[in-house]
Amino acid sequence: MEEIPWGRRRVADMSTSADTASRRRLPRLSGQAGYVLAVLFVSAALMPLSRFVSPSLGSWSTVSTILVVASMLTLIGFGQGLVILVGELDLSVPSTISLAGVLTTAWLGEAFSLVSFLEILVIAAVIGLLNGVVITLLRVPSFIVTLGSQLIIAGVALGYTKGTVAGTTPAFLDQVMSGRWLGIPIPIYLLVAMAVVGTVIQSHTSFGRRLYAVGSNRATAHVAGVRVRAVVIGAFVVSSVCAALTGMLLVGYGGGATLGMGDAYFLSSIAVVVVGGSSILGGRGTYLGTVAAAIFLTTISTLIQSLGISQGWQTFIYGFLIVAVVAALNKEVYGRAAAALRRPTRSREPGRPAPQPSGALR
Amino acid sequence: MSAVRRALSHGSVLAFLILVVMYVVYMYSSIDVLTLGNATDLLNNAAPLVIAATGLTLVIVSGGFDLSIGGVVVLANVILATHSGSTTGSGLVAVAVALLAGMLVGAINGVLIAYLRVQSIAATLGTFIMCSGVALVVMPSPGGSVPDFISPGLNSTLGGRLPVALLVIAGCVLTWIAIKRSRFGVYIFALGSDERSAVQSGIRTANVKFRVYLFAGLLYALSGVMLTAQTASGDPNGSALFMVLVFAAVAIGGSRFGGGHGSALGSIIGAGVLVVLQKMLFALGVSTFYTGIVQGAVLVLAVLIGLVSLSFAPSGDDLEQPPSTRGSNDGGDPVGTTTGGGHVHER
Question: Which terminal residue of chain B, N or C, has fewer Cβ atoms less than 10 Å from its own Cβ?
């Protein structure tokens, strides 16, 4: 059970490299911590350096804006990250954000109503529950189920509003997103709190360990007594609730709701997890990586925007970064590149079998 | 009885039955369904979906996954809308450029996935976003126009009788049959069933994968051309729903996400189901607000039906592999775990 968080191995691989697993454990862990630090360092370096691009950048106000925007990406990345950790995907995130946003303005109104607030979260939890139940009990691929529920939820939001969003932004959400405490915007506290709470949940609770176990190898997790279906359903519930909370924060940030307000998170919720160093196949990754990636991606997009280049090139660079990071994190790429240059590969791990064709190393 | 079970075990047969039932409902709900004009209209709506679904089926059968459809379709669309001029000659050049762009994206996918071994979901997610960006650069806002031979040309009939779209769909059917009978087709199925065994059988899997993505890219671009024939203009933003429909068509057609089993014929019928569904709902007077809800429900139901139809399969059929070979395939490809995980591990 111990080696599960650092990499899923195929059954065939396990038999040949039981001892390499233990040898690899420590370097893998420090490798991931190093990656997180590197991403954070690059982001931190980019912020002051961006002053050279435009004098208005790099100021404290720009940095705090970046962190405020990143806080929402951090939240959505937590839910999506848990789902990816168990080896599934949640594509219903964007329409859940939009539905929650629409309901927030329609139901919460000016004053804060705890009942309505909880109602929206319960609706989100039910969405996640249905996603999870259909995926685990009826064994339909998560990609299909959540694509279908994305269409359904978007249809519900459209049908409910009849095309025009009603209501007002609740005052407390406005205060949360634009308020300050000790001179620092409140969302930045949220980001830090989220990073701590998320890391504790993902890496230091029994639920988190179960997520890694399920994502690493379901058969093994099952044999070890993990209730695989319950864990997967749990991940989807958390994902939908995170999406709903993000929708609420977006209402406070943008001062209103639109039917397409979640669309931007369709791809970026997955991108932030992948760039954060998690394996899209599940079983590997840390939440701190996702937090670092949220800050990194927001910094990059702010920087690109200020370069004055068109929306198209911004999108292109964003996509290119995802491919580049995923390729860079893929250790086999180096092996292949080295082989292509006809240089002998370094023998870091003497006992390690040659790279397998189906991509065991990620 | 066993013949019935065997027939139902093919997802495409079940999808075909659904299509027939829905077409009958549609026929009774609207008056002039059986006219040539109406049939042409239906085929025109189905053609882009059919072509893209054929391409996606190849990728799915090979055990991969492709999110770049949306990007390539939009890229082809904006290239035609901005650069096709007004004459047939300039239009043909633009079509050629669009198809080359599709192949280029397919080649990038292929290199990333086959040779650099990036997971197919992550790689094609990236190329999808990159294509959307390039599409915005080519055409920042919706508009543009295309020469007559594209629209209405590709939407009309030859000699007043034969819809061009029907020829295109027939072309897809023939292409699939040709591929399936070729050595390449055998390799694709072998790759999707069990990559390790394919390698050990001497198949150059990287090369096969590369060609699959290359060809799929070409088909997506062709799909974009047929889509442009319908809209007669360009829109750099509208692709997400189309991509969802393509995946839905493949799912309804009974192809297994995870590889090794599937048929473009099923996907083509699946595309027909989706288009007839839209027409039927419109004819029945269902508000367009709720079309998305129905499409989403059909998508999930279709996959359920596909899984039910798999359960009709007689034991010992080639659909059911021993768990061990599935497990090893599962470890190496993204789809087996992210989309078919529960199916594989919990049986």
Answer: N
Structural element, H or E, at residue A120: helix A114-137
Give φ, ψ of B260 to 5 degrees: 90, -15
Alpha helices in chain B (DSSP H): 2-8, 11-29, 36-61, 69-83, 88-110, 120-138, 164-181, 183-193, 195-200, 205-231, 240-252, 264-284, 291-311, 323-332, 334-338, 341-345
Least CB–CB distance from A316: residue in B130, B287, B291? B130
Which residues does chain A have within 8 Å of residue B104's beta carbon, measured at their own beta carbons?
A: none
Strands B157-158 and B162-163: antiparallel
Considering only alpha carbons, which residue of chain B is nearest residue A11? Answer: B328
Q: Phi and psi dihedrals of A184, rounded to 5?
A: -110, 135
- For chain A, strand residue ranges (E) read 180-181, 184-185
Strand partners, B117: none
| Cross-strand partners of B162 | B158
Could you tell me if B290 lies within 8 Å of chain A, comparing CB atoms? yes
Chain B segment 89-148 residues within 8 A of A by beta carbon are: 112, 115-119, 121-123, 125-138, 140
pLDDT of amino acid B333: 38
For the entire predicted model, the pTM comes to 0.76
Q: Could you list the pLDDT tens digit for every one of the 362 residues in chain A? A: 433 443 444 444 444 444 444 444 444 445 567 777 777 777 777 776 766 666 666 667 777 888 888 888 999 999 999 999 888 888 889 989 999 988 888 887 666 778 888 888 999 999 999 999 988 887 777 877 888 888 888 888 888 887 777 777 777 777 777 777 777 787 888 888 888 888 888 888 888 888 888 888 888 888 888 888 888 999 999 999 999 999 988 888 877 778 888 877 887 888 888 888 787 777 788 888 888 888 888 888 887 777 777 778 878 887 888 788 777 776 655 555 556 655 444 444 444 444 444 433 33
Residue of chain A nearest B140, judged by CA positions = A312
Judged by DSSP in three states, A235 sits in helix
Considering only CB atoms, which chain B residues are within 8 Å of A99? none
Q: From the CA of A27, how many Å to the nearest CA of chain B?
A: 22
With contact defined as beta carbons under 8 Å apart, do B72 and B102 qualify? Answer: yes
> Angle at the Cα of A271 (from B243 to A207), degrees rounded to 5?
110
Exposed e or buried b per residue across B271-290, where buried means at least 16 C-beta atoms within 10 angstroms of its C-beta: bbbbbbbbbbbebeeeeebe
Interface check for A211 against chain B (CB to CB < 8 A): the answer is: no
* A143 in reach of chain B (CB within 8 A): yes
**Integer Cα distance of A230 and A94 in angstroms:** 24
- Is there a contact between A304 and A319 (Cβ–Cβ < 8 Å)? no
Residues 6+ apart with CB under 8 A from B276: B19, B22, B23, B26, B42
Q: Are strands B157-158 and A180-181 parallel, antiparallel or unpaired?
A: unpaired
For residue B136, give the nearest of A271, A310, A358 by CB distance: A310
Cβ distance of A151 and B131 shorter than 8 Å: no
Alpha carbon distance B344, B329 (integer Å): 10
What are the tens digits of pLDDT across the range B304-320?
766 666 666 554 444 43
Contact A25, A3 (CB under 8 A): yes
In this structure, the strands spanning A180-181 and A184-185 are: antiparallel
A8 has a chain B CB within 8 A of its CB: yes
Query: Phi, psi at residue A208, to the nearest 5°?
Result: -60, -45
For residue B158, the SS3 value is strand
Two tokens at B346?
Answer: 């919990």
With CA atoms as reference, report the closest residue to B15 among B44, B62, B47, B53.
B53
